[in-house]
Amino acid sequence: MSDIVQYALRSPAAVITLNRPDKRNALSRTMIAELTDAFLRAANDDTARCVILTGTGPAFCAGMDLDELRNTLGPEQGKVWEDATRLSALYELIYTLPKPTIVAVNGAAVAGGAGLVTVCDLSVSIPDAKFGYPEVRRGLVAAMVMPHLLRHVGERTARWLLLTGELIDGLAALRVGLVNQITSAENLAATAEAWAQALAEGGPKALAATKELLRGCSRQGVAVNELAKASAAPRLTDECRDGLTAFFENRPAPWVGPKG
Q1: CB-based burial of residue 257 (10 Å sphere; 0-12 exposed, 13-18 middle, 19+ buried)?
Q2: pLDDT of 260 strictly over 70
Q3: Contact indicator for 36, 94 with CB cutoff of 8 Å
Q4: C-alpha angle 140/146/74, rounded to 5°?
Q5: What is the CATH number of the domain that holds 166?
Q6: Do the bridges between strand 50-55 and strand 101-105 make them parallel or antiparallel, or are there none, so unpaired?
Q7: What DSSP string describes 178-191?
Q8: Residue 76: which pLDDT band, with cuts at 50, 70 and 90?
Q9: What total number of domains does the chain contain?
């Protein structure tokens, strides 16, 4: 494991830290692979009763790595399906992990980063963190995160976030149920660690069984592999290619008319 994903045991929790602050902890292929390895390690680490996921720098996770995303418009177009499958598998791994998961949101959690927040069991955030799904503004579809977002915020708020692409701050995320608690940056780690201590008072088998029952009670109607396909397919369209090109060139997408 390289330095971009850090794993540390802070009893009773395994702490997994996204460590690409210069890239706003963007989800590169390497980071997705190493996050997968880290969560598998935590699942099999008998000394870890739960997992805390957090980030370094001013952002928690800004979504997919822009350089890799740009390349899928050209020479690496064939990687689109593979990328979607691996990210979808990571979300499913975190969501179904037998051990409770806590996400400590230290900054912006956007697109794929917001997806990471929704697949964790508990979430604590700083007030000025930003949450949102701007995918439609690039011609993309946030398919993989839809069922997880719906579980937390309900359909009305999910439609607002997914269809408008607007960002909300930590206080708004608390109001709609996307996070459990707001705290200061100085108290973020301490709050997550206090929750970890509380979770460790539960029996490991009872916690795992509770998580499994909760998953069964909120069974999603679309299979994980279908969600991955629905996320990948738009990247191969002209609309997405035009939208992403406009985004990379810092100009409005071609379907955006003049304002006013």
Answers
A1: exposed
A2: no
A3: no
A4: 25
A5: 3.90.226.10
A6: parallel
A7: S-SEE--GGGHHHH
A8: low
A9: 1
Residues 135 and 141: their CA atoms lie apart, in Å, by: 6
- Strand 167-169 with 130-132, pairing: antiparallel
Catalytic annotation, residues: 135
CA distance 58 to 7: 20
Query: Cα–chain-centroid distance for residue 85?
Result: 15
Average pLDDT of the chain to the nearest whole number: 92
Query: 134 lies in a domain?
Result: yes
Residue 254 lies in a domain: no
Mean pLDDT, residues 183-192? 98
Give the pTM. Answer: 0.93
Distance CA 249, CA 260 (A): 23
pLDDT score at 57: 96
Judge whether 196 lies within some domain. Answer: no
With residue 73 as reference, give the H or E element that holds it: none
Q: 229 exposed, middle or buried (CB, 10 Å; 0-12, 13-18, 19+)? A: middle
Q: Which domain holds residue 78?
A: 5-186+203-207
Query: How far apart are the C-alpha atoms of 202 and 3, rounded to whole Å?
Result: 32
**pLDDT average, residue stretch 143-163:** 95
Tokens representing 232?
């990948």
Cα–Cα distance measured from residue 47 to residue 194, given in angstroms and rounded to the nearest whole number:
17
Nearest Cα residue to 144 out of 225, 68, 67: 225
Number of neighbours of residue 33 by Cβ within 10 angstroms: 15
Per-residue pLDDT reduced to its tens digit, 92-127: 999 999 999 999 999 999 999 999 999 999 999 999
Q: Is residue 195 part of a domain?
A: no
